[in-house]
Design brief:
homodimer, 8-stranded mixed β-sheet, 14 helices, ATP-binding (chains A, B), NA-bd_OB-fold (chains A, B), nucleotide-binding (chains A, B)
Amino acid sequence: MELVNIKDLFRNESEYIGKEVTVGGWLRSKRDSKTFGFLVINDGTFFEPLQVVYGDALDNFAEISKLNVGAAVIVTGVLTATPQAKQPFEIQASEVCVEGNSAPDYPLQKKRHSFEYLRTISHLRPRTNTFQAVFRVRSLIAYAIHKFFQERDFVYVHTPLITGSDCEGAGEMFQVTTLDLDQVPHTEDGSIDFKEDFFGKPTNLTVSGQLNGETYAMAFKNIYTFGPTFRAENSNTTRHAAEFWMIEPEMAFADLQDDMILAESMLKYVINYVLEHAPEEMAFFNQFVDKGLLERLQHVASSDFAHVTYTQAVEILEKHNEEFEYKVSWGCDLQTEHERFLTEKEFGRPVFVTDYPKEIKAFYMKLNDDQKTVAAMDCLVPGIGEIIGGSQREDDYDKLVGRMEELGLNKEDYDFYLDLRKYGSARHAGFGLGFERCVMYITGMGNIRDVIPFPRTVNNCEL
Amino acid sequence: MELVNIKDLFRNESEYIGKEVTVGGWLRSKRDSKTFGFLVINDGTFFEPLQVVYGDALDNFAEISKLNVGAAVIVTGVLTATPQAKQPFEIQASEVCVEGNSAPDYPLQKKRHSFEYLRTISHLRPRTNTFQAVFRVRSLIAYAIHKFFQERDFVYVHTPLITGSDCEGAGEMFQVTTLDLDQVPHTEDGSIDFKEDFFGKPTNLTVSGQLNGETYAMAFKNIYTFGPTFRAENSNTTRHAAEFWMIEPEMAFADLQDDMILAESMLKYVINYVLEHAPEEMAFFNQFVDKGLLERLQHVASSDFAHVTYTQAVEILEKHNEEFEYKVSWGCDLQTEHERFLTEKEFGRPVFVTDYPKEIKAFYMKLNDDQKTVAAMDCLVPGIGEIIGGSQREDDYDKLVGRMEELGLNKEDYDFYLDLRKYGSARHAGFGLGFERCVMYITGMGNIRDVIPFPRTVNNCEL
């Protein structure tokens, strides 16, 4: 079918004005009188809807006049400029084919629905203004991230989802199995007989692709992952989901400075891409979801990010301990309230906090010369706190083994990882960006359930 | 660190010749004499390696001369044209910093290793020529697919991985659970107490995002998914993996013709993108992996795909039944041998086979007027057979329910899917492309284990 996207009408108006076009879309609202009427339709390609004028010269005038909100129609007619009206143009319909009417109990009537209610109809909510905007922007952010890395010749690596190892030794994991849960087989010594399982051993859903990603950085120099990760944490917050997407770039022959430069460039690139490609959606968020959003993003895109060490940050925060629920002292992990204080009040722009105590960071981070801190960085942004966490990796075989022993990690589980320090080790660094947190940040949406098409959280796995 | 990618030296030679550059990379081979030597290094950004000349004026001449294959070095020196040599230029090293040597037992010595052996060291194999080429091309194909759809304003949708429903009622699935397998809780009536499980019900890994994708096509008109899917099938073949990636576009206000136009355009776009962006890798595959590859791909990119109905195809095939292991008659599913006969011998180019018997296709495909066949299409390509399968979807509520009843599907499980036919139903169509099959097709690689970084198959879940 030769349909025009409504987006093309708006973006290339002059090409279409005065010409006959055919558009398919869904009815958002309708006004009618005895001899003519207006249909407002949206086809999902553009945030703004399109007005259609139809009259009783049409054979199916009565049918059209009875359409319910949500109905699907294919409209043909001349696109006509409407200089006096709010919208720039409308279609004067010569034909309105009804593809499918919408039943009277259609849940999305004109009134405004709460996000809570819309979560119960996740298959229909993308038809509303807010979720049209959210999920188009989500798509654009995903593409901007790919574009950023591909333009810089980073190789996209699909790290595995099902894994036989617990990457970071952290986080509760989902088990993956084909065993009959009602009759779990056991060996003679009474343990579960995983030989009967699909992979012949216990397997889980990954919590991070980083260690696998490092193996590819040691071959391709610059790589990134972009895929789903899973946490079986029983936390019912607005910021946690059991299934979410992560971006994890990794660079060989790179140190913590390079890592921060990459993170800063990426964030600015993505923000600029979305501001350029979804101006209508971003204006909507700014007006209805988060008043200061555009100003904040534009500020971030044009600021040099600040840098502060963890030790300096703690000194700053200790002076304000009376303002915090959790008091700060050297050695403690920073909470969101501290992160937001730093980025919003102290620096007024994004800030990298670097060189954290080794005790609160992962085993693979590079030990600094002070023997107390590691070459880690967290990027904090106004309104959110931490959005990116990264580090230079320990590239010295002996130091890495020493740290693993301190933490009681089983060396054999990490043979492949140690090989990278044995055969052509090179300084390298990378970071992780939680994709949904990035979408929340750029849209201003406050609940992770509202930026994932079909969110998975404790006791919630619908559709 | 200010390093130049080797790719940039080759692609923008004139910008660098005669200038000092710094390059990081890994030693592929070495030749040395008493007073000077050559290092051949690769940094993973380009298929061709770079030659480095070093002499005994360097302080660490002895250290360099003892480096093992696989060692990581950072080299600084002037890039010098070598018009008499095989390679276009080399670096005259003024400094060679050893980042990390490579232990003597480095598994990738200069001799050629079998793919079987390299599968046992999946963390090191991307350092070989073949797997450098495979995984760079894999990355480029992934990006080309995103670029194709984004340029056409398709919205990228992340459909869920963990699912409470068996999408197509087909395929063995992996269970996802946080229950203690050693002490699976039971309810009073003796059944498993899934209330104790993370999601409060049985959950699996998805086998397809299509039905979820359709809900978004009914909001955004044109969408695509690109994410992992899973099959717990106990099949140990060169074409099946338990974890693989799928692309599933879906278009509203589109029929089977539109679907085929999209599939053909996408395949041609992706092939052309790879030929343009990875000429060295493609030449390598053509020479060492699959002799006729380039000619075949160029032919596909420039042919109009053929079209034949299933009924016509069966008539053609029946005439050659003596050549087939499985004899063909109307109603049977086509095997790879039949598919390859059609695309390679009968048509000599890619061919769409359409309108299959409803009995051998999924419940959601649109019933044709003959009441016997459905508006399905498979795209067959030389060398592979089926690479894409798609259909127009049944958009009539009553017909869809009727078909579900015939097949004994539980209507309540599909309420959300039926809602799409109740509230503004529109003709729509889509297809599925197995990403790995596409990578195999474009690289000529014969085993799916060799186009997935860390493949998961029966009894195999390493790293």
